[in-house]
Amino acid sequence: MSLLEVDDLSVTYRIADGEVPAVRGVSLTLDAGEALGIVGESGSGKSSLALALLRLLPRDARTSGRILLDGDDVLTMTWGRLRAVRWAEASIVFQGAQHGLNPVQRIGDQIAEPLLVHKLAGPEKARRRVAELLEQVGLPAWRSRSYPHELSGGQRQRVMIAMALACEPRLIIADEPTTALDVMVQAQVLTLIRELVAAEDIALLMISHDLSVLADLCDRLAVMYAGRVVETGPSGGAFAHPYSRALSAAFPTIGDPASRLAPKGLGGDPPDPAQLPSGCVFHPRCPVALETCSTVQIDLRPAGDRRTAACVLVGED
Ligand SMILES: Nc1ncnc2c1ncn2[C@@H]1O[C@H](COP(=O)(O)OP(=O)(O)O)[C@@H](O)[C@H]1O
Ligand code: SF4
Ligand SMILES: [Mg+2]
Question: How far, CA to CA in Å, does 208 sit from each of 51, 161, 185?
Fold first, then answer.
């Protein structure tokens, strides 16, 4: 059994004049100690997927499908169980998470909080654990007495990582954890996350709009387009789906803000999820579309070397 098994997950937001299908039937698995990257343009449903995994979506979102964490269904578990899972088994580092720090509380107290709340440590043991965690993320122990405004953006993101590690989770979900940081700091923080999860045998679900961020860091990649996974495969190999190929051909420099939008060389915009094209939703932008592509939607199918892709040109024939 995998640590995380997502089966046919959908997330739909209710809005004033209708519905936004942000995630549409996503299935994926993640083993203990494995790093899976999820890549896709802005608006492809990555954050909705991440939030759904720990039931952190706003009230106007409807979720269906199954999310098994260690065999336990996150979508149906009690609130009490869910609270325990959120810190002790899986934790999440958000995009611009630095704003999640309390400005008037010393960072040491903020890192210690989940340990104390979940009764994993008393005050003295928590203090020692905070010092150890700060050291793990490359900050001196005396920083525990600092307030968030006394730290740089990169240091604050390191604090957020220390918080995510505090209760020794088995899964860390990192949603664009370095997007707000400058390029040098981004590379340092990403390397840090990778080293920590490898050393502690933690599973990592790393989300980014930037393929270059994920390629080195992850064992496997899943490519999202308009709420669906259109390709999965080992991160080293060549892509099979025309959308993934366009993404990788564009291969933006690390941290390039322009890559949040359409990759270079790929015309048009991602579709509005409230008005999706028929058939393969990528067909209006696909450079190799066939006539049937506007009517037939293809599910993920084998594409060689542990790879799957949702495209009529892949596999079978
Ligand atoms: N709270 C919300 N209400 C309505 N629509 C939303 C909400 N959050 C996200 N969306 C829409 O869902 C789609 C997917 O968004 P998101 O999951 O944030 O994608 P990504 O993280 O890949 O940029 C987008 O079209 C976005 O506008
Ligand atoms: S199914 Fe057709 S439109 Fe969709 S990616 Fe493949 S070739 Fe392009
Ligand atoms: Mg996002």
Answer: 14, 16, 16
Range 4-98+170-309 has CATH code 3.40.50.300: yes
Whole-number Å distance, alpha carbon 51 to ligand 3 midpoint, is: 10
pTM score above 0.70: yes
pLDDT in tens, 106-133: 999 999 998 898 788 899 999 999 999 9
CA of 260 to the centre of ligand 3 (A): 10
Instruction: Name residues contacting ligand 2 (CB within 6 A).
Output: 241-242, 280, 282-283, 286, 288-290, 293, 298, 311-313
Domain locations along the chain: 4-98+170-309
Average pLDDT over residues 212-216: 84
Question: Which pLDDT tens digit goes with each residue over 48-72?
Answer: 999 999 999 999 999 999 999 999 9
Give me ligand 2 centre to Cα 313, in Å: 7
Q: Which bound ligand lies closest to the C-alpha atom of 42?
A: 1
- And the tokens for 27? 């299935």
Which residue is closest in CA terms to ligand 2's atom 3? 283
Question: Per mean pLDDT, which range of 171-175, 208-212, 259-263 is the poorest?
Answer: 259-263
Nearest-atom index, ligand 2, CA of 230: 5
What spacing in Å lies between the alpha carbon of 46 and ligand 3's midpoint?
5
Query: Which ligand is the nearest neighbour of the Cα of 225?
Result: 1
Q: Which pLDDT does position 259 carry in this prediction? A: 47
